[in-house]
Structure formats: structure tokens, C-alpha cells
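=== RUN LOG ===
request id: a7f3
mode: sequence -> structure
chains: 1
length: 767
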Amino acid sequence: MFHRYFSTLLFILVGTGSVFAQSVPTPRSHFGFEMGADRKLANWDQLTAYYEKIAQASPRVQVDTLGSTTMGRPFIMLTITSAENQARLDELREIQLKLADPREVRGQEELERLLDQGKTVVLITHGIHATEVGGPQMAARLVHRMASSNDDEVREILDNVIFLDIPSLNPDGLQWIVDWYNQWVGTEFEGSTLPWLYHPYTGHDNNRDWYAFTQLETQHTVLEAHNVWHPQIVHDIHQMGSNGARIFFPPFIDPYEQNIDPGLIAGVNQLGAYMAAELAAEGRRGVVIHNRYDGFTPARAYQHYHGGVRILSETASARIATPIRIEWDDLRGGRGLDATISSWNFPWPWEGGGWGLPDIVEYMEAGAVALLNNAARNRRYWLENFYHINRRAVEGWERWPEAWVIPANQANEAGLAYALRILTTGDVEVHRAEAAFMADGESFPAGSYVIPMRQPYASFAQTMLEIQHYPDLREYPGGPPLRPYDVTAHTLGLLMDIDAVAVEDPVRVALSEPIDIPEWAFRLPSSLAGDDAPRIGIYRSWQEPMPEGWTRWVFDQHGLVYDTVRDARIRAGELEEDYDVILFQTQSPSSIRNGFREGTLPPEYTGGLGTAGVQALQTFVRNGGRVVAVEEATEFLIEVFDLGISSAVERLPAEDYFIPGSILSVDLEEDHPVTLGKGDSTPVWYWRSSRAFDVDDPQVEVVARFSEGNPLLSGWLLGPEYVAGKAAIVEVEVGQGSLVLFGFQPDYRGQTVTTWPLLFNALAGRD
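=== RESULT ===
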């Protein structure tokens, strides 16, 4: 009797599963092609429609719209797990939240229950860089597999994992890139470059926004995915160059930022190595670990400070969706990798040959499934490791202070609100002191902001508030510096022009409940508002630089009225009819003059200013116009106006002089119109494209100089003597007009509140 009942039940379950699997639409049935086929791409409209169909057909999949993108498209997340887990999703999230905050766990017995019942939470994100098309296409394949398959591997994943999938971190860029590619596929422009930034403001820099949280897409991901679920594992899927390894997984190379928990680093190492081993076991060649990518900046790794591991994967690219061929002799690698030689971290080189979107999608999917398998099979390990990382934070680290205090009544309201917004968005508990108090012998007024350093995400507060001392790493002793993958400084007090004080004494004052996330507090200077405001244009090349996009974001947040000025408008001349001042963000002189080469893009997107544009710009300035230029663009103006200015550091070898992205001190000429209101010095942002000027022309006025001695405030600087005392901002009158040249970046990734006034003053001009 029992055996007959069991057989009947098994038949019902298997039969139901089969019918259920058949009801989930396949990618081919929806899109008309297999995901990952050469020269075939689905855009965001098509993909979101597919996910809605899958959610309707499968009880394993839930689709949520987290908000709208910059351009108003839906920004979605899929929650994928077994039907049984879906039915108790709120309960499972409560378990996760308790493990995320050990202060809420009431003893060992409750901890054991949570560890027994909880699930590994995995967040996989795709396509933050829109030209890296493989991730969003692969996502549709992976979601279908998880929604429909009844094999043992998938069932084990679904039973033990809550899989959160954000199929595109940049839907606007995805739509643009796919539509552009599909428009030109089969023509001479197949696979050509999109002639504008593929994120509306930040382009490729949108994956440098994971502590500033400036963009809507970042905010939705952090506030509605990370902070709601606190995943143990985040897998960020990218693509890289074509001529090296086929795919990268961690371990990362040194350095890791010093506030990242050792248990988290160990988790990254074991998971990345496991994924690489799984792909090798499947016969996939060209897998590399421990190469090129480091673990330093929080701008790329939110989860490193929130209890979970971040797995970065980078798969070799094709020409968007057009296949390429790479011969053995063309394989390279760089940064310690020769892609033709086997090594401990690259055991099985790829043999060369054809490479296209089918390969990209297969490698990506294999990596994602390996990660999900590890998360399922090691569920208990991931939950325990997560809990202990958070417990150590709550207990406090020896190197951390007792608290950070941001004194009340600071002059820079915009910088204060920005810094508090960063901390609170990052789930840091920030309180207000309800009375004045003393700590470490210093008096702080009532209303000061207090950040106790015994809380789950104290590591995020610490890394954002302290000074960075980046290690002096060399390729070999006495040799060139080992270049960081990104920048080396992110100290909020310096970037935002506010004070933040680390205190060792216990803060003995009544504190408020944690504050909410504040609004931006940006205010446009009166000199740039009203009927007398200058008419501003930002030069916007078809080879659009990312800092130009960041600057548009800053202007838009302030409500600044401006035009974007294309090459054709400048070439047409008579610029003074429409503009009083034109801003050139950092861009090479060649790019400004020449733009895209004829034949590489449709004709309306090729060429730069050319001779006509240069002459129009000269006429504009000599007739009273003003041009402000930043970093590389200063070289263009120096050439065009034959100025007696040169770079003081241009040809120095890297082993002698190197600033990869640091915060320096600059001394200002007080009461100059450009420095008005800034006092006698300020922190500034300096990186590889920045300049320090030698001035040989008495007509050139030096407005600011890099401080004498060692101007480094945070980060890494080799050879301070080469930049100290050199000109940082200069102004020169030309005819009836003028030029202002910034050697440093006054608007670094929308964060340098401290130097925005210098840029605004330069645009406003003299009284």
C-alpha cells in the first residue's frame, strides 16, 4: 500500500514538474533566437517583457521593479528560489537580517536555529558597462534554467539559495548599445563605438559609484537589494580585453583595503578559486585568478564593507556581438600574465582561434552556476562566516576608534549633507548628540553627528572617514610602481570640505535614534543664477569624456542652466551670440581637434573642431569670451593660443614621479575671483591625467600652487618634490577675453565638493 502511494505521488510530482517546465517560455520562443547567438542581441524592452512572462509561468521567480533609471526605464530585480522558499520569503529575510546584526541574536540556541534554517543569499548583477553585452544576454538563459529545470543541480540551488538577479545595472545603456548595434549590423559600421556615453552621466565610471551613490541605478541596487537582503555573496559580471585570458576570477592581488574583514578575504579566495577549478574541470581553457584586479577602493566594492564577498568575473570580449579571431601569436595578457604560458594561477592557456558571443555567454553562465553550486553546497559555511564577520564588527576592531564625530554647525552644508548621505545610505548608524559633550579633551556642540564604531557596518564608516596611506608597491625593488587598478584615496572629510574627528573616549551624551538618509543640499551660487548669470556651454564631443558627464550631473543637481556644445556648433562660429563662457572638460588635444576618424562611424559623428572650430574659438575669446579647461584639455588651449605654459611633470619616469589618484593640498591666491570664498588653501583631486604647470609667460597669472614640501593629504605620491610649488590653476587674458586652466580635476566623479566653488567661480568670471 505504501509503495503504491509513494509511486503515485512521485508520478504526480514528476509529471507536474514536467508540465511546469514546459510552460516556462524559452528564450528562443520569446526572442526568436538563442541567447548568445552571434550578431543577435535583445534590448531592455524585450528582456523585461521576457522576465514578466517567466514570472507568470514559474512559481520560482518573482520580478520587482526597484525604481526608474536615469532615463525613466524600469530597473528590475528577480528573486529566484524554490516555490517552498518563495512561500516563506519574509521569514527567510528576517533570519538573514538577524545574522547581519548579531546584536539581535539572543544566545547560542537562537543562533543555531538561524544557521539551520537560513539560506545563502546570492546577488548576481549584469551589464553595468553596456558594451559588455554578454552579461544581460546570459541572464535570460540563466533565469530560464533556474525557472524551468528539474535536474538535481538546479533543485539543490533552489532549495538552499535565495538568488537575487539584477539583469542589468544600466538599462539605459543596454537599450542604446543594442539598438545601435542592431541598426548597423551587416554594414561597414557593425560593432562600431556608440558616439556618446553609455550611461547618461557617468559612462564607464558607473561602477565607481559604490560609495558615493550618486546615480539612481546605484541607489536602487544598494537601498532595495543590498540593504534589504544583505547578501553573503555578490557576483559582479564584467567583460575585459580580447587578447589575454578568457575569464578572470578572484583571488584579487594586493592590496586589500585595511578595513575589510579577513574572513571575507578568505571567502573571496576560496569561492573564486573554486569557480576557476569548476570551469577547468569542464574543459574550459584560459581561466586566470590572482591577476590585475586588486581589492582596495570601496568605489568598486560595496559588499566588502557589508559582510559579504564580492566576486568579480571578467570575460574576454568580442566586437560587441560580432565574432573575432585571435591567433596564438596575438595573445598577450599584461600585468604579470603571459597568455601563452601556463602558470599556477593560469594553468591551462587558451589555444587561440574564433571567439564570439556564444563563448562569452557560455563562460559567464558556467561561472555563475559554479558560484551558485558553491553557495548551495556550503550553505552553513556562508551563513556562519557572514555572522562572524558581522559579530567582529559589532565587537569593534582594535585599530578603530571608539567613535567618529562630525561636529555640528559646519560651514559647508552641501558637503555635510553629502557625507551623511553616503554614510547612511551605506547602512551606517549615525546619531545626533542631544547635548554638548567632551571627548578626547575636545568640546563638541549639541547636534553633532556621532558614529559609534561597534556596529555591523563600522568598517564602511572607517574607510570613508580616515586618511588613506596606500602602500608603496613596486614591480621589483627600486622599479616602477605597481599601478593600482583604480585610485588610492577616498577620504570624505577632504573631498567634502568637512571635519570628522576620531575619538578614543566613550561618548558620554544622550544620542538620538539613527538619522534618516538626508536630501542633497546643493545650492547654486548667486553668480550663476538670475538674469545676469553667464551663458554657459559645455563642450560635448562625440568622443565624450566621462568627466564631462559627471560635470553635467553636478550642474543638473544644482539646477544650473547650460547648453551642451557640439563640434558643428563651434565650427559654425559667432559663439559670442549664445555663450559667455565655454567649459572643456579633460580630453586630449587630438581628440578635440580630430574626433572620430572618417569611415569609422556615420559621417555626422566623425571629425572634431578642425581648423574652422579652432579659429571660431580664438575669435570667441579675443572678442570677450571666456574658456575654462581642465587637465588634458589645457594642452589644447596652450597650443591654440600659444601660451608660455608647459607641463612640469610630463616626461618624468613613473619610478620617480607617480600620483595614481590621490588628494593633495593646494595654496590659493586669496581674493582672486577664481578663489573667492575658499581661503588660502584647499584639498584637490589629482590623478594620472592631471597637470602641474611651469609658467614662462609674465602675462599668465598663477591662481593656485601645489603646496610646498609634500602636498599629499591622502593616497599615494611618489616624488612630491616634482609637483610641490608648481602652478595648479592659471589665468591669462587674451584680447578682450580670458582663459582659466585647471591642472587638477575640480569635479572628480561628482564628489569633490571642496573644489566645486573654484569651478563655479571660474565659470562666473570677473565682476
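=== NOTES ===
The chain has three domains: 2-394, 397-503, 526-764.
The two ends are 98 Å apart (CA to CA).
=== END ===
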